[in-house]
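Structure, all two chains, one model.
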Amino acid sequence: MTLTATDQRGAPGPLPEGALRIVALGGIGEIGKNMTVFEYDGRLLIVDCGVLFPEDDSPGVDLILPDFRAIEDRIDDIEALVLTHGHEDHIGAVPFLLRLRPDLPVIGSRFTLALLAAKCKEHRQVPRLQEVKEGEHTRHGAFQCEFFAVNHSIPDALAVAIRTPAGTVLHTGDIKLDQLPLDGRLTDLAGFSRLGDEGVDLALVDSTNAEVPGFVPLERDIGPVLDGVIGKATQRVIVACFASHVHRVQQVLDVAVAHRRRVAFVGRSMVRNMGIAVDLGLIKVPEGLLIDLDEALQLPESKVLLVSTGSQGEPLSALSRMARGDHRQISIRAGDTVVLASSLIPGNETAVFGVVNGLVRLGAQIVHQANAKVHVSGHASAGELLYLYNALRPSNVMPVHGEWRHLRANAALAEATGVPASRTVIAEDGVVVDLIDGIVQIAGRVEIGHVYVDGLSVGDVGESTLSDRLVLGEGGFISITVAIDSATGRAVAPPTVSGRGFSDDPKALDEVVALVESELSRTEVEGITDPHRVAQAVRRVVGRWVAATYRRRPMIIPTVLPV
Amino acid sequence: MTLTATDQRGAPGPLPEGALRIVALGGIGEIGKNMTVFEYDGRLLIVDCGVLFPEDDSPGVDLILPDFRAIEDRIDDIEALVLTHGHEDHIGAVPFLLRLRPDLPVIGSRFTLALLAAKCKEHRQVPRLQEVKEGEHTRHGAFQCEFFAVNHSIPDALAVAIRTPAGTVLHTGDIKLDQLPLDGRLTDLAGFSRLGDEGVDLALVDSTNAEVPGFVPLERDIGPVLDGVIGKATQRVIVACFASHVHRVQQVLDVAVAHRRRVAFVGRSMVRNMGIAVDLGLIKVPEGLLIDLDEALQLPESKVLLVSTGSQGEPLSALSRMARGDHRQISIRAGDTVVLASSLIPGNETAVFGVVNGLVRLGAQIVHQANAKVHVSGHASAGELLYLYNALRPSNVMPVHGEWRHLRANAALAEATGVPASRTVIAEDGVVVDLIDGIVQIAGRVEIGHVYVDGLSVGDVGESTLSDRLVLGEGGFISITVAIDSATGRAVAPPTVSGRGFSDDPKALDEVVALVESELSRTEVEGITDPHRVAQAVRRVVGRWVAATYRRRPMIIPTVLPV
């Protein structure tokens, strides 16, 4: 049966000599914050260092980082950080790792490093970058890396083979196998086959679409669909997609040219990334096609196409503002066309459909993946993963990048191609996997928590703060402030009672004052002068009252001031 | 062009003599809290009175009700309430309407009224019920009703034709056109055709699946899929579905019989609804098939099938507890089978996939609509709606039950069958539509708010409380309590500063005490003794500090006690 370690809690023993250790600090059991640590002979190599975008259970949090505790004490043992591609869930946490080790060598492709450099600039960091291309080899201590071209929803993505005396590991990064990619840069299945001939001891493989049968359609099939939609449009056209999806944007630009529309980019990250893509020659833009938004607004609507961020319903994005009718410059009207040429990331449905409904209400025609083929995924479906396993013929497999449902499906695919179930290992974040004599085994588990970024500060918002936020967000609070004579415990003034997030009714808490006064009489009679005990008594009596009267659970906050 | 009233804000004028007025108090522009008010000659007829389940923007709220204000002053003008079927979004708010008018006649089919009676019992109400069947006619003042059988995801659903001197209106309720329904009770397309021959002045039509091309597959096609899954299972099998989906449960029971498994119902609403369905003969249960959960747990796992609630990831449901591994009686283990024979309601994805991942992690095999045909929708797809329009041939059409994207798609279907665009009207909640001389027109708009139920209380939680909850939920609060001498404004003790939901770091607010003390010295020197003004000064200085130091926005709550 597939190796899993759902109950394993113990710390791992020391790594046997000649063995390779693998620990994911993020990305297994979740989609996001990908980070894998490889250890050989006391030295470390890290692949990717991304962020996770928070969901409802982490209110107020901006980002979630991988938990660096497992490597914090060994920060100088790290030989290098290898980045597979430039998406946020693979590079977003790099600045936070560089705070611990500013001179860490960071290895990646040209576009990946350009995006990272832009990010580091915002953090006022100058990272130590080493650019690599597919086909190249690098050496970082005992770790020898070889890079392979892979196709994904961002240009210039790489898989990395890591050779150590313990064996050869292939980490796919995010991958799909588009057989007619727009830039002609195929996933290097031939290279994987050669590596397979040599012998792959362990493959870490993208699981995101392992549940999806068949094959991802070609990216280039989207072009004609966009052409049909945009060719028919007679008014304003807005296309929203991910700001890093250069090939998607290329197809939009080609359609704009064909229909004599000039193009303006909308949204900070779109403008920035497309600037980088143009500089690096990753996108072909005919002279004079691009204009800025102010210029675009001067032209007839039928002569312009806007390429915008906001495809995930982000509330502050330009597209969301247009949908609410409060964009400063752009008013949507009946007959406009909006294309969402993007995925719908699970968890964003309410936000995205909110934007769609807002735009539809204003009369726009909305084209999205549910009613036209304007998006294809960047991750290999089951059929492609079979090609991958049959090329690599790995001895051991460790599914990565996925929730449990994706990981199990990926393990099953590996097993279907002949990898023994006992050699597939689902190692959720923190599970320590050792490759010893060519066989994977689970060696233990290191503690992995969530590290939250909220505003300027990292790590001070933790589970206790989040749990308070959840309680406050559900029920608000009732605060009761009393000043007592520190000698007698007698209340020196009537209690001050107020609530926020509890009720709109100004009389909702009228009874509480009398209730608290009566409780204070009791504590005084009992000779209780300790402010903490008085506060406890107040909390208890108010909590009971509110549960019985309203069946609600606000936070009850007594403050007792001895004066 | 389709009539819409997105900007119309004015109150409607008086209803012309001989005209019919239609106002939706809920259900248009949203999925849920369906309620439509018809007015003729000063008298009202209401169709449905349901609830909406809250989303993230209404934290802590249990239910959202239609806004009754538009009819509150005219509560005695209501002739009757007609219920199309027994789903919560059609009957859930009835007890709240009955509080205003306990003797209101409530008309509905047998199963609908049985579910309503059970609900009213929990509210200690005894409603005045009038049972009807398809084919029957009733009269309520000037409103003559005729009822038609319709097929949906609950038995005994009805459409209602309302005849008044102003014309004939058909309200479909929720509807699909399964041509081989399990109970043989077809949507009465023949009746609709007859009504069409007679002349339908206005059709209000379910929009939920208007965007979905083609036809909903047959409910009965699910049986063989369930048989394949359950027939292969050798361990525990749990099937989760909606508690009111009697035909789905019937198919599960049939499969259980075929594979010699006995059945226990799990979940309060499942047990209650199936009890009613058995009593009314709507479900066929062989003698001895049903056992209770305690009994089921005594039998070998291969001899039992559990039918459970929790298909939407409800955190307190038995299924969620099993997924977290903290169900008191049932531990999921590798090889168990869980079938989610249900839809995935938009907005519930995170919760549902959380449950799926939890179960997969424990080793269960999960069968759901994405990997097997174990669910079909209860709402007509576009192809079926075309049949409906071609049978009814309505002069005017008003799409209901949907968000804007669904409503627009439904209007387009009506128009494709020949209804002039100027006779289709998208009247979101509160828009007043008059049918005058056989032509719809928009007469104005009544104000429609959200009415929230939180715990025992209705309506006291409003926008201000929710906005406070959102702020508290995102950033927590910092409270500062100071006692000042009421004569001089001098602080009589150091300020008490505390935060909840702000930081896990006990020193996070250390600087605030000194900051507030310095501000209090300033206000004292300036001779400020008014507690309100002192509080304002404290709020300002702490708010600025926290924004600059943390870039966060907790609620700042100063309390100034004059002593």
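Residues 3-214+377-446 of chain A form a domain with the Metallo-beta-lactamase; Chain A fold (CATH 3.60.15.10).
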